[in-house]
Design a protein that fits this description.
44% strand, alpha+beta, 2 helices, Porin, globular, 183 residues
């Protein structure tokens, strides 16, 4: 029961952070300059061009030893419409327990510089499918294999390429590589 409430609080706090930080970015927001208060030094201006990024992930490091899948074979697409503060994406992967899985999400990137290059912080939230059977309790609010996920990451963007270090709860770290597809 304690684990359930711990997972609930983590998921809800991540979701609340995503909503408030995104709302704070809008100039006509009810929250005014909340974004700059929550993320000082980070830039959140929308891009003037849309972005479609192809992602792959070749490796996951698991904190606890055991028979975990360290090669997720993750492939995903992420789209950020021109003028938007949000990005939308979907990914397919093999989870830590060798089950086919998917993640559909909305997210936000904050750059440390105003030119959409260099270091950034990213958080996404959405629905994750694939943790079934004896592994159903590995994802919060899992029902019939569908659960909620809030996933933070740090990354670096250089031209059309980026790499991210993604925190997967308290269980693992994943590295991913992205390429912005030509427009």
């Amino acid at each position: 029961m304690v684990v359930f409430f711990l997972r609930l609080s983590v998921a809800l706090s991540g979701f609340i952070f995503l909503v408030f930080a995104t709302a704070g970015c809008a100039e006509d927001s009810l929250f005014g300059s909340l974004d700059s208060e929550l993320t000082p030094g980070l830039q959140s201006a929308p891009s003037d061009q849309s972005r479609l990024t192809l992602y792959i992930s070749p490796y996951v490091y698991h904190v606890h030893s055991g028979a975990h899948n360290d090669v997720p074979r993750m492939i995903g697409l992420e789209w950020e419409p021109a003028g938007s503060y949000l990005e939308y994406g979907a990914a397919y992967f093999r989870n830590s327990f060798y089950q086919d899985s998917g993640y559909v999400y909305a997210g936000k990137r904050w750059f440390f510089e105003d030119n959409h290059q260099g270091f950034f912080f990213n958080v996404t939230g959405g629905l994750m499918y694939g943790y079934r059977g004896e592994n159903a309790d590995k994802v919060p609010f899992n029902h019939n294999g569908v659960g909620l996920a809030v996933i933070p990451a740090v990354g670096y963007q250089y031209g059309s390429f980026n790499t991210q270090l993604i925190l997967l709860g308290t269980a693992a770290l994943m590295i991913s590589f992205g390429f912005d597809l030509p427009r």
